[in-house]
Automatic annotation (TrEMBL):
Key words, A-Z: Acetylation
Keyword Metal-binding included in the entry's annotation: no
Transmembrane domains' residue ranges: none
Protein name listed in UniProt: GOLD domain-containing protein
Region (Disordered): 1-41
GO CC list: Golgi membrane
Domain GOLD: 89-224
Biased composition (Polar residues): 1-13, 24-38
Keyword Ribonucleoprotein among UniProt keywords: no
Database matches in PANTHER family: GOLGI RESIDENT PROTEIN GCP60 (PTHR22973:SF11), LD35087P (PTHR22973)
Organism (species): Electrophorus electricus (Electric eel)
Length: 226
């Protein structure tokens, strides 16, 4: 979907949460969490922090991870609702890319890159007949090599990409902006904005994992402003 340009919004400063390095989803070969923190060592040759968990498995944090965590603050998102849900859905249905279906028991993630001419991300969404969970996350770009080393899977979990060695994984910073909560988007249009913390990708998560019988139709749009 092409990003559109709109007006600005003001925000409140907060400190971003730090991702849990013990999360089993960082290791595609396991689904359990350890009760002990992984061992941390400094790799002087590569300039990376090495996180050692299970024998033979290491995680590397690039210097840009620490720069983004220590020197950049995440602004709180502004959120609101508006009652013109019928008009909004009628407008969105004219662009089929603005209509998505989240299957029963599924979490669908929409990835939106920051725009070089933008400073704020705006979003709006509504649903038919039933509520849906919604949350917003920000994934930092890897400034070291211009790539993002962590990609969310279809179900919204973080999965690490393998590097040259089969038992070495690279991870990057992944920050929660808006926690996932169920929203009554079948009654009102839910909207919000967030100031870019830097270069990266926003992850809009539409969570229908709690619904075992019903798929959800979501009408949405995203755009940026200066």
């Amino acid at each position: 979907m092409a990003l559109q340009k709109q007006q600005d919004s003001s925000e409140t400063l907060i400190t971003p949460p730090c991702p849990d390095l013990r999360d089993s989803s960082l290791n595609p070969g396991t689904h359990s969490k350890s009760s002990q923190s992984p061992e941390c060592k400094v790799n002087s040759k590569k300039g990376h922090l090495v996180i050692e968990g299970k024998p033979g498995v290491k995680y590397f944090l690039t210097p840009s991870f620490f720069l983004s965590r220590a020197e950049v603050a995440i602004m709180a998102a502004s959120m609101w609702t508006r009652p013109q849900i019928k008009e909004f859905k009628e407008k969105m249905v004219q662009d089929m890319e603005s209509v998505i279906i989240v299957g029963r028991g599924e979490v669908l993630t929409v990835r939106v890159s920051t725009h070089e001419d933008g400073s704020y991300l705006f979003w709006e969404f509504a649903t038919d007949h039933y509520d849906i969970g919604f949350g917003l996350y920000f994934e930092w770009a890897n400034e070291a090599d211009g790539t993002r080393t962590v990609e969310p899977s279809v179900d919204g979990q973080m999965t690490a990409l393998m590097s040259h060695d089969r038992d070495v994984y690279t991870i990057n910073s992944h920050c929660e902006v808006v926690p996932v909560y169920r929203r009554d988007s079948h009654e009102e249009v839910y909207a919000g904005s967030h100031q870019y913390p830097g270069q990266g990708v926003y992850l809009l998560k539409f969570d229908n994992s709690y619904s075992l019988w019903r798929s959800k139709v979501v009408y949405y749009r995203v755009y940026y402003t200066r």
